[in-house]
Automatic annotation (TrEMBL):
Places the protein is found: Cytoplasm
Alphabetical list of Pfam families matching this protein: PCMT (PF01135)
Record-given protein name: Protein-L-isoaspartate O-methyltransferase
Substrates-to-products reaction catalysed: [protein]-L-isoaspartate + S-adenosyl-L-methionine = [protein]-L-isoaspartate alpha-methyl ester + S-adenosyl-L-homocysteine
Amino acid sequence: MAYKFIDNYRERGARKQLVELLKRRGIEDKGVLAAIGKVPRHYFFDETFWNQAYKDIAFPIGDGQTISQPYTVAYQTELLHIQRGDKVLEIGTGSGYQTCILLELGANVYTIERQASLYNRTTRVLPYMGYKPNFFLGDGSKGIPEHAPYDKILVTAGAPFVPDVMLKQLRIGGVMVIPVGSEKEQKMVTVLRVGEQEYERIELDTFRFVPLVGDQAW
Ligand code: SAM
């Protein structure tokens, strides 16, 4: 795929319209909305599909994977309450779009992807766009223990359960956001680590994610 980086009035206008749509759908966090308004989502698409980039839909990015729907990205990010300087572990880099949103919010992002083709693409494209997370290739269902603890953990694929090994990588006071359920649909779950062995879990709305595949997953 050839990359083309042009952000003209058409894309900027479509991005503003997307932000308005997300507000109408209930996204309130000003930082999240500003980040969505800033990151050029069309850069993650082949030019042929730029007219799809600012619709509120998930879209195939190759290798059976998708760039998440903007509403889903905004919803998960809002739940994380990112503060500047937060150390965030993201499981499932995918296209890297969500990674850029986290970076725009001032997070220090550790992102892991299991598919080499996607990892190879994001490690080239994101730095070219000016975004510099810490990239990892491998099974993120076990987290990345060597860099723990994290202030926030975001899982962007559907898990059959909340992996214990990942929870232990949250600092006390930290939050994890993870879709949990069947292969067909998942509930968005937030877990707050309140003590050494204590966690508070809340189940929210239903979503459909591609499966989290790995040792502590499907
Ligand atoms: N948020 C991403 C974006 O904005 O493009 C979309 C992520 S996509 C819905 C889910 C990603 O999780 C896929 O790229 C998939 O390959 C990856 N994935 C699934 N299981 C994984 C695992 N165990 N470790 C790391 N990545 C995994």
